[in-house]
Amino acid sequence: MRYTNGATTNGHHVNGDHTNGHITNGSSNGQGPSKPNVDVYVDVDKIALSPSAPDAVPALINYIATSKSISLEDSQERLKLRDAAISLANALETPREAIVRHGWTTATRHAAIETALALGVFSHLARDKPRSVAELAATTKSDPILLSRIMKHLAAMEVITEAGPDEYTATNFSTTLSVERYGDAFPMLSSSMYLGVYALPAFLKENGYRNPNDPTRSPFQLGRRSDEHFFECVQKNPTLNRQFNNHMSIYHQGRPSWMDKGFYPVRERLIEGADLGEKDVFMVDVGGSIGHDVSEFRRKWPDAPGRLVVQDLPEVIETVKDLHASIDPMAHDFFTEQPVKGARVYYMHSVLHDWPDDMCQTILSNLASAMKRGYSKLLINENVVPSVGAHFETTSLDIIMMSIASGERTERHWTKVIESSGLKIVKIWTVQKGVESLIECELA
């Protein structure tokens, strides 16, 4: 198939009267759909083959060149350098190259990784000794021709390293994927979340491009051809449930935690002034799954008084095990009345972004009714989308959540939802771009 500018004949594009990619002012003059109106003559073909942001290149190169001495152990400095390198690559890339990258590599890389995971390929690769496709095919009982194609693409995408013709070694990335807890992200996303994301354009078009706000009628239901909400699917499918919990556990790894010193003043704001006995409740983790966060809190703040409670639905709480003796698992639906009254802290981590505003108001109102004025605090550990300069991790997650009729929120949006529930924001604590903030709330 050869493509050149112009009209189409017999499946081939030949030179014709389609302006060869040029856009000018004017209408279609009855010759078809109107062309976009622009103020000046634009040579789109020239733009498509030129760097996307040439003016940004010198400053980015200078920043990267002067960053040679940074410590890669400093996560904030490392991330700044990484983001600058990504920005430089994007600035140097032409629009045509960007179209190919966005259109071709995202889906194909995912498909190749998930196939390799299913075959167990990453577990058989080593960094110190190249493994041949023939050897890997025999070990994984797969077709060597198929495996060769998959491995070539993984090497082209730098997931693994090519050591010679049909020979490969591992990278840190592929070694990490060989552990189920990390690799589970790929089959989980393709079998569930992506169904809604890929259905999003059609859903929005069908619904007049209105913001989805009904979790029972969302892009996810359209993509999956089911009436079930995402979390219903997770609860009914043990494999998906495990994969989702694994992905959530690794998503937060290596990211600043509000419990760390320098983020939120835990001792000054929570521990000091706490008035409770050994059996009284200090913190309630609402919708806390199997207790990752309360366990982290107990490790980092062992002298915090009282007991900790982790709440979730009965089928989740049944799977909880190996908690510290001071942590109590409790079955609870946060859409109903909160049974623990007057705790020092009520805490939610990435819960409210799962639900539209009206359902968040119900959750928050139930907590407000249980709080003790002048004493109890509500801590909401969520993304706060900045007005400008939002990070791609935050905006990507927002689109994913849009597919189930929820989303990330700006400070203005958070203020509206929280204040409508009888609460007020005391302060929003943020330490790093692209990382969840801590929204500190009290009764209004």
- Strand line-up in the sheet with most strands: 10-9-8-11-12-16-15
* Structural class assignment: alpha/beta
Q: What count of domains describes the coordinates? A: 4
Mean pLDDT: 90
Please tell me how large the radius of gyration is.
26 Å
Q: What percentage of residues falls in helices of 4 or more residues?
A: 40-55%
Strand content: 5-15%
Task: Report the uncertain regions.
Answer: 1-20, 22-33
Second-tier CATH architecture of the largest domain? 3-Layer(aba) Sandwich
Count of DSSP H/I helices: 19
Number of strands: 16
CATH superfamily of the largest domain: Vaccinia Virus protein VP39
User: Briefly, what CATH class of the largest domain?
Assistant: Alpha Beta
How widely separated are the two ends?
Answer: 67 Å
Task: Give a structural overview.
With 444 residues, the chain is α/β, with parallel strands linked by helices. The chain has 4 domains: 1-38, no CATH class; 96-178, Winged helix-like DNA-binding domain superfamily/Winged helix DNA-binding domain (Arc Repressor Mutant, subunit A, Orthogonal Bundle); 185-251, no CATH class; 266-315 and 322-443, Rossmann fold (3-Layer(aba) Sandwich), CATH 3.40.50.150. Helix content is 44%, strand content 14%. The protein contains 19 helices and 16 strands. Strands 10-9-8-11-12-16-15 form a 7-stranded mixed β-sheet, sandwiched between helices. A 3-stranded antiparallel β-sheet has the order 5-7-6. Strands 1-2 form a two-stranded antiparallel ribbon. Helix 2 packs antiparallel against helix 3, helix 6 crosses helix 7 (144-156) and helix 10 packs across helix 13. The chain is globular and about 70 Å long. The protein starts with 7 loop residues before the first strand and ends with a strand. Residues 1-20 and 22-33 have low confidence and may be disordered.
